[in-house]
Amino acid sequence: MPLTSVDLTPNIGTEVRADLPTLLDGSIAGEIRALLEKRGVLLFRGHDMTDEQHLRFAETLGTARHEHGTDITMVSSDKTKSPIFAEYTKGTFFFHFDDTYMDYPALASVLRACTVAPEGGQTEFANTYAAYDDLSEEDKRRFSTLEGVHSQETIQRKAFPDPTETQLALWGEGAIPATAHPLVWHHRSGRKSLLVGQTMSRIVGLDKEESDALVERILAHAEQRQYIYSHDWQLGDILIWDNTGTMHRVVPFDLDCGRELQRVKLSGEEPIMAPATEPA
Fold this sequence. Notes:
alpha+beta; Double-stranded beta-helix; 15 strands
C-alpha cells in the first residue's frame, strides 16, 4: 500500500495512511522522514501495534535511544508505573523541546496511545520553523546573534514555584545544569527554526529587564495558534514529532485518570548549531 497523507492544519501536522506491514518493513521510511521534517508532526491512526512492532517501526526511521533502562518508556503520571515521568508531568504542561541539556537533542519521538484521558490530556505541537519564517527581517538578523539559557528548573518552577529539596535534587540546576543555545537553529538542511520554549530563562548578554521582555515576546510569537496542532488521542494512534523543529506540551488533565502513552525516542543526529559567522 503506498503512502497517502492529509494535512491537519496549514502549518503543522499530517495524517499518514499506510498499512501496518508497509510501516514495519521500512519501504516508505524515507518518505516518512522527509514528510516529518516538512510537517513537524505525523499521525498514524488505527494501528493496534504491539511493543515489538512499535519498536520495529521506530527503528525504520532512526536509532532507538535506550533510556531509563529500556528502549520503550511509559509516559504516565502514575508513580508506581513511571516514577521518573510522574515527577515531570506538571512541567510538561508548558511548551518545550526535549533534551535542551544535550549537544544532540533527540531527533524525534514515536508515541503510542495505550490509555487516554477522559478530559484534557491532548498533546499540542508548535512549528518553530514556521514561527521563524514569519519573523521580520530585522528580528531574523538580531535573533541569529543571540543565545538563550535553558534549564529544567525554569520550566518546573512554573508548575512548582516553591519546590522541595527533593524536587530540586531531581531537576534543579545543581542536578541538571543550565545550557545556552542559539535562539535560531541553523539546520544542516539549510532551514532555520527558533529554539525557544518555557525552559528558557534569559537571553545572554542582555540586562534583566530587556531579557525578560524579549523572552516574553519570543514565546508569545512562537505559541500563536496558527503554528499549533492539538492532538486528541484515540486508542490505536501512533504519533511522531520532529523534536528539532517543534515544541510540544500536554494539556492539563486529571493526574489520577490513568492516561498512558508508550514512547520510543530516536537518538539525535544533528547538533544545535549557530551560523558559522555572524550575519552582516
